[in-house]
Amino acid sequence: MSEQEQYDQYAPDEEEYTEEEYVDEAYAEDDSTGTDSAEPPRSLLQSWLVRITLGVVILIVLVAVVGGLVFSSQRSSRNKPLNLKVYPGATLLGSETFNDGFSNHDRRLYSVMVPVEEVEQFYDKQDDVSCDQYFGTVVGVFENSPEIEGHVYTRCIVDRSGWGITQYSTVLIQPMYDENQNPTGQVAIVIDRYWGD
Prior knowledge:
By secondary structure, the protein is α+β, with helices and mostly antiparallel strands.
């Protein structure tokens, strides 16, 4: 007797299974949980309602974080003085700094010997600056400025206030006159800057 015959003699009879019986038997063995064995268990993230809710929560958190960063950035950019260009060749005559507890304020006084129209055009061409001419009878900035009729001064303003922060600058452009109300050719430029809460 060959070795194969001897093995077959002592080997238990093997049952042949069809593919369907094999699959059914595999699920039948796993039926101890009491669940429907035809469906595999589902994870929590397979539910479309959970996915949508999670997506909305993540979106809200991202919007809140980005909004907070933008708000903080905008406030910090406005909590400093707004710099305006000074007319080229203007001489600084003096400066003062004020602090009233709520906002900061500084003033710079310049003088230049050019036609007042050139100074007005210089400031009016700067970004976000709007200028208005004022006419009437007004006493000037300097002591030697008498009461005058006609074009008294030009006031320019740029305002970036926002997000609960004050930030603006004003420019006063005033032609100077002698005792006889004749123009001296000198122009006074007063720049006031305001910033802070």
